[in-house]
UniProtKB/TrEMBL annotation:
Protein name: Major facilitator superfamily (MFS) profile domain-containing protein
InterPro entries, per database record: MFS_dom (IPR020846), MFS_sugar_transport-like (IPR005828), MFS_trans_sf (IPR036259), STP/PLT_plant (IPR045262), Sugar/inositol_transpt (IPR003663)
Keyword Membrane appears in the UniProt entry: yes
Subcellular location: Membrane
Lineage, broadest ranks: Eukaryota, Viridiplantae, Streptophyta, Embryophyta, Tracheophyta
Species, as recorded: Medicago truncatula
Cellular component GO terms, alphabetical: membrane
Family classification: Belongs to the major facilitator superfamily. Sugar transporter (TC 2.A.1.1) family.
Amino acid sequence: MLLLEASVQMFLSQIVIAIILGIKVTDHSDDLSKGYAIFVVVLVCTFVSAFAWSWGPLGWLIPSETFPLETRSAGQSVTVCVNMLFTFVIAQAFLSMLCHFKFGIFLFFSGWVLIMSIFVLFLVPETKNIPIEEMTERVWKQHWFWKRFMEDDNEKVSNADYPKIKNNPNSQL
């Protein structure tokens, strides 16, 4: 819920900033009235506060709590790598995008906030009050989408069964 609540706050902040800058600031004007400038700063602070209590910390917390115990360290490593890579890409591209898109950069990022929100709404399960040890059974194997990627315990083939299967001429191995 925190991600979805913050998404609304972030989306609306960016849309309103884009509208104000699109209407009030043109290529031939060099000032924004003091009232609009203060309002834009308040909206930027609103966006930052929404990110600070939701997407910022939860982007690190959710993966650490949802990966199965067997793959948690590898999953968290990938999470850190992807997070830092995209932070670098956005930091490098932001200024040139701002120069080319102008107020449209706020529409661009609000579009990504909308996509992230849709992803969370449909594909990120609620994990409140579920112990980490039970995450696979109670969350991932029950989720409408992710359960198709989960291995059923009945389908597992243990190493002890391999010689029996290997010597069986009817096996598929």
